[in-house]
Amino acid sequence: MVKALAGLRERLQRQPPTPNEESALRERLAQLGAELEQLRFIAESKDARDLGDVLLCLSVVGHAGNQLHALQKLSGMYAGLAQRRRMSVEVLGEFVDGKQERAWLLLSGLGAYRPAKVESD
């Protein structure tokens, strides 16, 4: 990560980004920021359970009005989080009927338990 940040800083010092490059640079900075946050959490963790994998059960119960595919959006959010933090996510199962939707996700990688812990605090 240090090399990536140094390379990015050097690149920006040589020449400002073009409008076409700005979006990609912002995305890369966000990714490096997420990795740094993850490393900080790992380094400061005092409970070994925080560093393990996590099984998530996502539920949407009792749709009101227009269905917005909330379960797919929530699953996609965790998939994006896993990708940014270099973890993996696996959909273990899904259940959908007219009144509820459920999905079981396995988030794996160093510090994967963190998102579940943060949301329950």
What would your notes on this structure say?
This protein is of the alpha+beta class and 121 residues long. It has 2 domains: 2-44; 48-120, Dodecin subunit-like, CATH 3.30.1660. 50% of the residues lie in helices and 21% in strands. It has helices spanning 2-14, 19-44, 70-84, 114-120; strands at residues 54-61, 88-96, 100-108. The protein has a 3-stranded antiparallel beta sheet, covered by helices on one side. The longest helix is centred in the N-terminal third of the chain and has 26 residues, at 19-44.
Rounded radius of gyration (Å):
18 Å
Q: Describe the main β-sheet briefly.
A: 3 strands, antiparallel
Terminal Cα span:
29 Å
CATH architecture of the largest domain: 2-Layer Sandwich
Give the strand order of the largest sheet, numbering strands 1, 2, ... along the chain.
Answer: 1-3-2
CATH class of the largest domain: Alpha Beta
What is the CATH topology assignment of the largest domain? Dodecin subunit-like
Q: Report the total helices.
A: 4
